[in-house]
């Protein structure tokens, strides 16, 4: 049977010791009341809810999947999902990070990030329902008119209604400039929306009374391409002025996808035929409105990667301790028994430590980014907001792609520890591999994240955000440079930092001559960037652990840091070498020869 | 809809140009008649059979899976599987490599290897039925008494009956010394077998009239551990002396597993209650008897990895050409159309070339090993047989682990090319990821392969087999060392060869002090070994291609070789670095801290 316990001790270590989050919150009026006790209480209670309510439904959701009722265009979620949604709403979890003006609890993004990790460890498919709803909430909160906000936000915050993001169409996902969904103005100021959207997560389900779709569409006179996209609210039931649910709107689920994983989430084809829609933001500015919430959404997907990393690790450890087979190579560890637990094998521990180092490093990176998102959104000092926003922008594609790649790898390593037992449904770990796979694809494929990082976040602003990040590393290196105990971490960190800077400058030069150099380098570049950030955070964590080696928590932290530097960081070298080969290593193959 | 065409041109390149197989066969009387025409005809006809008969059943098998009829302990295979089995038998494919004395065609292992690749590209789950049967045939052919051979082999060769290998039990797979299945001698010379086996591929099905299980069990007086294991024939129906099917034996399928992939193959729990069994080989020598056929079986799993690499590549290419979205970074490739095909993006081509380089390199390695297996088994000169057997022994764990790891990576990269469409069943590519996953686990996990390579094949014989392999690389490097055109391949090959030798010696020294050094290094070591073999074979293929650049086949071959050296080979550097950290990078983490 699968196991999950929330990693409370490590969460506290990251939030309080590594990030010292409450010190930051003291400077942010909106969060001045968020003290350590509040944080710990939220972590503990959410951990309990996730482990006790959501986790037992994870295998159920995978086995049952969602059911589409063609006659009524309705979707039934797996057994227990609706009841869990009720408990979730009642406990107030749905409004955790939402504006108190609309009934939310107004807690920081960092807390949403930590809670998100746990929800995804427990049940990613379920967690996507509130996840998408939060995305719609944030978009409307940022871009809705006061009337739209008053009408929709309280219901989205309470969880009476849920939301979706309707972007992809059958012929395009990455290139939204090609969408065909049309919005024709009607006399009453609303629009008639017609078109087909696919891959709409939580597009139709039985959890809530109404579903608020945020739909990208084109006005009749829209410019070509991505400059001609507008955003519309298309509710399943058109709300009355008093907020009660009105007439059924012309937006219907035309079917659900049969997928590799996240079976418990309904992935819908949505068909609109003259559906009533309401413009959000200005005409032709829809893509901008969507992009503003991308940082939060992509951080959320990164937390899906982290959540699966953690739960895959926990299950693999439990199995490795329990499974008794073979003998330690250097002699029986438990000579009285017929065999040793497989934990004695260095190769098994290598797999476990890989997942563990990815989990703890990912937690540090994800939570750090969450904290900077809070500063970017709410700090009273504009310069600090701007600086934090640039850092969030730089880190977001890394969080999304690096943590989801790592999540998939950790799930695969965890499954490998189980041997043949990992391949059958019963043990639950193969689900993690299947679920983890989507995180590398949706919300912008990891290849798109890599282009975003190198092309937009690094090269477009001539490396300004990267230099600001590098300055932090430099400061740390200088502060610890004379510490003999820290040498094993500081030296490779400083070395990678120097190489990364040099490599980035080289790439900038090459890209001026040939834009394909960016595309040819991007994925390798992102992996190196991820390791640079991990090396920095692991070095800082090692620093905190060094003086407390009597406590097993810190002893394990230091051992994991050492494992990371010795066994995982070397991957960066290979990617730097591969990347340097440039576009010509790919262009040598004529398109016609494929 | 998924696509597959057998890679005939590349198969011919490897067999005739790279390996010059028929020149080897001229020295082997058993295969003296195997000329290029024969080989080409087998490749073409098998390719047609795989593409036309097996491939259309692949998605069917995945969707339907096998059905277990509890009342009768019977398993029904997916629609079409039985009919395809009939066509397969009638066309004589089942006896391709089998002894002509028992009705086989007596073709070389190399041909079985090539045919195996295609069968696995087309339908791995189906291909496992004949695959397991071949394993049982080989084991009995090597170890059976003349009477056993006369009774069982003709039926196994014709495909009237099939076979299985029953090793794993619920509590042990890797460590077979722990098995609990018992064999008690009976007065008539047979044995009463009682016990439970799990994960028995093709253990029960509706394809054949009888199933011949080869079962590992312990005699009452057996020594402890792996020295006390014996091998038994346990037929589903006990054959009469005349070869007709007799009484139902006490071996029953107790259930089938619900698995991540290979749904079309029935993975059975087999329960034996005083089942009639017949001893094969000598008492307590069962594991040896099994091990003799391991080279062939593990080469077969490597071909599963290769088969999925190839088909994942082909489907990703088809999609990338067809999918029109976005624009080339360096300007529109097809300005008349609303967007370019995604093949223009360097990152997409990076993914495709990764799969392609793994496929073509894997084909070279797998077929080369198959050819050496023919020499090892059938060459008239004993010294040549011994030498080839040592090379096969060295290459086998690399073929099994490196090609199946690569197969999984290729399937994942291929799926990534599809974006969201790759995550849904309909496009067929997510099945390749799920199917590919088992190849890294069964027939000895890839971690076990790594221990076999480093511990047994390299260190135990003080590197003799490795030196013989290194001498081939050295000869090639010396022959091509002065060629300017070959410099880009020869220099990194020679460099990696030197580093590999040095690293192996270091490891040998360290392992004498601490056996855990082997376990801590093994997986990284195998990945480096795989790249060394690939670099050697890719350099040789580049040599063949260099002078024929007017022909697109050779131009593509050279471009792929360059991609391999520039973008994939650098991975070896990272593994060498990780490996050098040694056991202390893992031992730092106390077992109690996990």
Features:
594 residues, alpha+beta, Butyryl-Coa Dehydrogenase, subunit A, domain 1, Butyryl-CoA Dehydrogenase, subunit A, domain 2, 7-stranded mixed sheet, two-stranded antiparallel ribbon, 11 strands, globular
What does the model show?
The structure is a homodimer of 594-residue chains. Among the domains of chain A are: 8-67 and 75-143, Butyryl-Coa Dehydrogenase, subunit A, domain 1, CATH 1.10.540.10; 161-284, Butyryl-CoA Dehydrogenase, subunit A, domain 2 (Beta Barrel), CATH 2.40.110; 445-588. In chain A, the strands form three sheets. In chain A, strands 3, 4, 5, 6, 7, 10 and 11 form a seven-stranded mixed beta sheet that branches. Chain A is 57% helix and 11% strand. Chain A is globular and about 80 Å long. The model of chain A has no long low-confidence stretch (mean pLDDT 97). The first copy, chain A, starts with 7 loop residues before the first helix and ends in a 7-residue tail after the last helix. The first copy, chain A, is of the alpha+beta class and 594 residues long. In chain A, helix 1 crosses helix 10 (346-378), helix 6 runs antiparallel to helix 9 (294-322) and helix 9 packs antiparallel against helix 12. The longest helix of chain A has 36 residues, at 382-417. Chain A has 19 helices and eleven strands. In chain A, strand 8 (237-239) and strand 9 form a beta hairpin.
């Amino acid at each position: 049977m699968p196991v999950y316990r929330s990693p409370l001790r490590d969460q506290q270590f990251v939030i309080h010791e590594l990030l010292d989050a409450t010190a930051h919150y003291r400077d942010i009026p909106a969060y001045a009341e968020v003290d350590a006790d509040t944080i710990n209480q939220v972590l503990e209670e959410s951990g309990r809810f996730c482990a006790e309510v959501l986790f037992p439904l994870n295998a159920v959701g995978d086995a049952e999947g969602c059911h589409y009722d063609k006659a009524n265009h309705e979707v039934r979620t797996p057994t227990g999902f609706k009841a869990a949604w009720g408990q979730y709403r009642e406990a107030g979890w749905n409004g955790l990070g939402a504006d108190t003006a609309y009934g939310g609890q107004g807690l920081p993004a960092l807390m949403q990030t930590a809670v998100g990790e746990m929800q995804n460890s427990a049940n990613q498919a379920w967690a996507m329902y509130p996840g998408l709803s939060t995305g719609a909430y944030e978009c409307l909160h940022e871009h809705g008119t006061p009337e739209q906000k008053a009408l929709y936000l309280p219901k989205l915050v309470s969880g009476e209604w849920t939301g979706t993001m309707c972007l992809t169409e059958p012929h395009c996902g990455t290139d939204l400039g090609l969408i065909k969904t049309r919005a024709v103005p009607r006399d009453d100021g609303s629009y008639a929306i017609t078109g087909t959207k696919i891959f709409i997560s939580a597009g139709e389900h039985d959890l809530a009374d109404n579903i608020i779709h945020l739909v990208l569409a084109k006005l009749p006179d829209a410019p070509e391409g991505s400059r001609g996209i507008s955003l519309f609210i298309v509710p399943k039931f058109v709300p009355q002025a008093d907020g009660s649910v009105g007439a059924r709107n012309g937006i219907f689920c035309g079917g659900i996808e049969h997928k590799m994983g996240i079976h418990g989430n309904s992935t819908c084809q949505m068909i609109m035929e003259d559906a009533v829609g309401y413009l959000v933001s200005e005409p032709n500015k829809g893509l901008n409105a969507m992009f503003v919430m991308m940082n939060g959404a992509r951080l959320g997907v990164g937390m899906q990667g982290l959540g699966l990393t953690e739960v895959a690790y926990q299950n693999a450890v439990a199995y490795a301790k329990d499974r008794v087979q073979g003998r330690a190579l250097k002699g029986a560890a438990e000579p009285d028994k017929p065999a040793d637990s497989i934990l004695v094998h260095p190769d098994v521990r290598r797999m476990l430590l890989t997942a563990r180092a990815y989990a703890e490093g990912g937690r540090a990176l994800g939570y750090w980014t969450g904290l900077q998102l809070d500063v970017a959104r709410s700090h009273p000092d504009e310069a600090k907001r701007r600086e934090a926003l640039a850092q969030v922008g730089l880190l977001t594609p890394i969080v999304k792609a690096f943590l989801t790649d790592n999540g998939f790898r950790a799930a695969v390593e965890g499954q490998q520890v189980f041997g043949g037992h990992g391949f059958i449904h019963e043990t639950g770990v193969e689900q993690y591999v299947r679920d983890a796979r989507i995180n590398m694809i949706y919300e912008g494929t990891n290849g798109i994240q890599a282009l975003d990082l190198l092309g937009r976040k690094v090269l477009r602003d001539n490396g300004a955000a990267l230099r600001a990040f590098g300055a932090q590393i430099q400061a740390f290196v200088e502060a610890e440079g004379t510490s003999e105990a820290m040498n094993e971490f500081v030296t490779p960190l400083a070395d990678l930092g120097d190489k990364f800077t040099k490599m980035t400058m080289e790439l900038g030069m090459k890209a001026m001559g040939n834009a394909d150099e960016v595309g040819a380098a991007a994925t390798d570049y992102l992996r190196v960037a991820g390791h640079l950030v991990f090396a920095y955070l692991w070095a800082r964590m090692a620093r905190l652990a060094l003086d407390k080696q009597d406590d097993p928590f810190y002893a394990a932290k230091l051992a994991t840091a050492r494992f990371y530097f010795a066994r995982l960081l070397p991957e960066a070298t290979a990617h730097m070498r591969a990347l340097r080969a440039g576009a010509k290593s790919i262009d040598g193959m004529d398109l016609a020869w494929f």
